[in-house]
Every structure is written in structure tokens, then in C-alpha cells.
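User: Quick sanity check before I run a bigger batch. Here is a single chain. Can you write out its predicted 3D structure?
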Amino acid sequence: MFQSILNLIFPEKAFFWGYAEKIARSVTGPISIFFVVIFLDLKSQGYLFTFISLLTIKFVLELGLTQIIITFVAYEKNSINIKKNFLKGRFNNYLRLKNISRYAFIWFFWASLIYIGLLNLVGFILFNSAGDPYDFWLPPFLLLCVLSAIEIFFIPFYAVKEGLAKIDEVYQYKFYKTILFLIAYLALLSIGADIWSYSVALFLNVTVDFIFVMKNKSLFLSLIRTVKGQVARLNWKTEIFPMQSRIAIGSISGVLSFSIFTPFSFNLLGPETAGKVGLTVAIVTGISTLSVVPSMVSSQKIASLVEQKNIGMLDNLILRLLAISFVIHIFSLLILIALFYSLEEFFPFILEKVLDPKSFLLFFFAMMFSLISTPLSIFMRAHKEEPLMWLSIFTGVFICFGSYFGMYLYGAIGAALTFFMVTFLSFPILISIFFRFRSRY
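Assistant: Done. Predicted structure follows.
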């Protein structure tokens, strides 16, 4: 009976593990609230969430390549069969798959090394200005830099497997990572590990990544090895670089616009306010992440349908993904409203750890307008085009500069209002771009 219900809700096993991983990731923020409230003061909370915000630098170095790997591998997968980590199919597609994989592995290896240096530089400049002793923040921050860099190195391994339609396995391992990390993170907070908690818990993520790669060692080695007489079957300059450069510019603008709020508040308003901003952003990001999981899980399927030119199924899938994202946001909003009233009545001290309700709601709706259109973006990128580049640049620039000056003049609510206005005004422009793009097909 229970299995029948699961099959009805999750007709594909990948959706079950995808939802499980994203739900687990989404509840990390709300569950952490209680542990942070009890075991961290506002200054430590500010440092912790600023640490976490700086980790988004990895997306700058990723340059949109993860989604490109999934899309291109999915195209080649249509002519290749995989069984027990062995590939069979058309030789030309096999060589193209090897070219894509080797490029990705090399790219992320160098990206992880550059990331360590860049993160250390930015972190030292930001945290050194606060005037706290080095032994308070520097050792846990260095550990965080190293472990998160190792995580970057493992990114393409998951992307290749997802492109090969092994989505259930990918999200199953990501689910294990999320659960183990959450347990360790909360346990470390409970025993007084303070701002070391996040850094030490990240070690479990790296361990799961290593197990995933070793389990699929034969597949990854076959993709890395050079075939005798192998010639490049993929023209990077004409096939991938134009798309990657456009996605990279848009992605950098988008990521920076999401991740600058806590560092800005740390610099302008101090660690205590940064703690409130960081926790608020973590909660609304968790909800939005949950709302886009159907889209992310379906990215490989969308790419395959585009390659097959199955327009009818594509339209139905995109509409369904948009509806799911909207419903999740609205349902989450109702839960948040009820939760705020309950906390105000019974645990008012918890609300002192987050921003005021007006700022919270502005951040919530801004994030909703930013991410609810994810299915449209995946659809356009599946055609190996990036028509949203300029919109991403303009919104990213306006959010960055507007949030800084808004926070400087009016505090956290100034940044929240700027974020909301920019995303609200850019949403109809994005819809217009999508319909013009869709009319070509």
C-alpha cells in the first residue's frame, strides 16, 4: 500500500531521491535555527553565516559548466547504453562523451585550487576588518576553505552521472551527504564547537563524495583514459565555449546578487546584524531550493526531449514544473506565517535571531520571483543557448549596488527592498524573453 502511494507521487525513483535530498537540505535552515539560538551568540552567528555566504564563490569558478555537462552528456546518452558502469553505443558519441568528461574533470581540478586562494584572500580582508583575534576565526575558516575546495573537485563526477540518466543514484548520494552533514552540524553546535561546527561537519560531505567516486571508479577511469587513435570529436570553441561564456556571465551575476547580503551586512552593520541577515537568507533560500527541485531533477529529461524535438511533452512538463514551484512557495509562506505567530507567542527570543517580518517577507518574495522561472531557464539552455545573459547581468548589478547603498542608508530592510524591487520588475521581462524564444520552435 505504502509503495503504491510512493509510486503515484514519485513515478520515477529519481524524483523520490531528488525530493528527499532537497527537502533535507531545505529543513537544514529551519532546524538549525533552534540550535543556533541556543548555542551561538549573535557575533558567532554572524561569522558562521558569513563563512557560508563566501562559499558561493565556487559558483563563480564553476562558470555554469555543471548544467552544460549535464546537457551535453544527456545528448550523447541518447546513442549510448550504460550497464554496470560500462558504456556501449556509437563510437563517435562515445568519444564526444569522453571529451566532455575529460574537459570537466580538468576544469574543476584547477578551479578547486584557484578557489582556495581566492576564498582565503576575500575572507582575510573581510574578517580582519572586524578586529577579532585571529585564533577565533582563522583556523575554522582555513579548514572550511580546504574541505569546500575538495567538494568542488568532485562536482563533475556527479554531473556526468546525472547526464547519463543515473539521476536516482546521484540524488541518493546527495541525500546521504545532506543528512550526515545535518546530524554532524547540529551535534557539533550542541557540544559547543561554535563556528567550527560547519567546517568540521563538511568533512562528512567529502567522505561521501569519495565513496561515490570509488563506487563508479571503472566508469570514470574509462572516460579519462585516452583511446588509441582517439581524436577530438567535440569543438570546444564553437560548441561549448559560446554557451558557457554566456551562462557564466549570467551565473556570476545571479550568484553574486544572492550571496552578497550577509558579507555586506557584516562589513556595514557588524557581525550581529550579519547573523540575522544570514539566517533569514538561509531560510528563504531553503524554501526556494525545495521549489525548484522538480526542475533540477528534470533537467536531463528536458535536454533529451529537446534533442528528440518532442514539443508537446516539453510544454506539458514545463507547465507542470512551474505550477509545482508556485504551489510550494505559497504553501511554505502560509507555514511561515503560522510559525512566526507561534514563535512570537511562545518563544519570542528565537525571533531575535532573524530579521523583522517586513524584511523577511521582502526577501521571501524576492527569492520566489528569482527562482520560480527556473524551468524556463533550463528549457532555453537545453537548446544550447543562453538568452538570459544580459538580463542576469543587469539584475545582478542592480541588486549588488542597490543592496549595498540601501543597506548603508536604511539597514537590512534597504537591501531587502532593493532585492524585491529588482526581481519583481525583471520577472515580466524574463517571461517575455521566454515566449519570444519559444515561438522559434
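Residues 1-11 have pLDDT under 50 and may be disordered.

User: Great, the batch can go ahead then.
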